[in-house]
Here is the input.
Amino acid sequence: MAERVTETLYDAYAQQFSVDEKLLEQNSQHQHLLIFENAKFGRVLTLDGVVQTTEGDEFVYHEMMTHVPILAHGEARRVLIIGGGDGGILREVVRHASVEAITQVEIDEAVVAMSKTYLPNHSAGAFDDPRFTLVINDGFAFVRDSSEQFDVIIVDSTDPIGPGEALFTQDFYAACKDRLTPGGVVVTQNGVPYMQLDEVCNTAARFSRLFADWHFYSAAVPTYVGGIMTFGWASDNAALRRVPVETLEARYRAAGLRTRYYTPELHPASFALPGYILDAIGKR
Here is the structure.
């Protein structure tokens, strides 16, 4: 019988993957890394026992984290990625020729190195883009100490445990706001609300103290079990969340995009949330 990996994220519930081939297992300075092959999802990356990304469905997550804020903004020239060492967000950002500079801050250099080797389709050569700068640093420290300004900030963090915990705090979100250009937007990975509703509520409370307009949008990512996944959205420009679909379609065409999950029609619809989430964040 094939070896199996059981995810450790939740106490009362778990998903399990068969390991067809173990490609890499090591302890970095920050966390335990494992990459293995699975017949359904392709190559799977786990950090400290928690599934981060799979070849099979990564496009859902990376397209929605990237194209929703960039196409909503419409004039994004400078983009900051916090985390995202596998390169999937970067791959989608570099597809926008209008973006002039991309900075990525990743705490664990080992994640970048092993992703280039074992998950090359995630980045698809994007680490070599001339607009790109990689900074190996703590994401919180970077936004706190930097004086740079960005139009879009994408926080592709792990869950709020271990190295990712600081990226869900009030101080981190405040520092992100300081790094935004006027009218800029920050989006965050916010977990599966049916399983992690407290995480969504905590982010909502913190966003509400800092930003004039905040909400969540969602996508169904099979790897992240338990229902839809939510992404945090925060800006002082409320118009960004209400861009007409016709405008999104025009921007999508102008960018020359062809995506597997994201569509301009899906974009505004993704901000429509189930009642239980609206109730939890006080928006119904």
In short: Residues 3-54 form a domain with the Spermidine Synthase; Chain: A, domain 2 fold (CATH 2.30.140.10). Residues 201 and 281 are 6 Å apart (CA to CA).
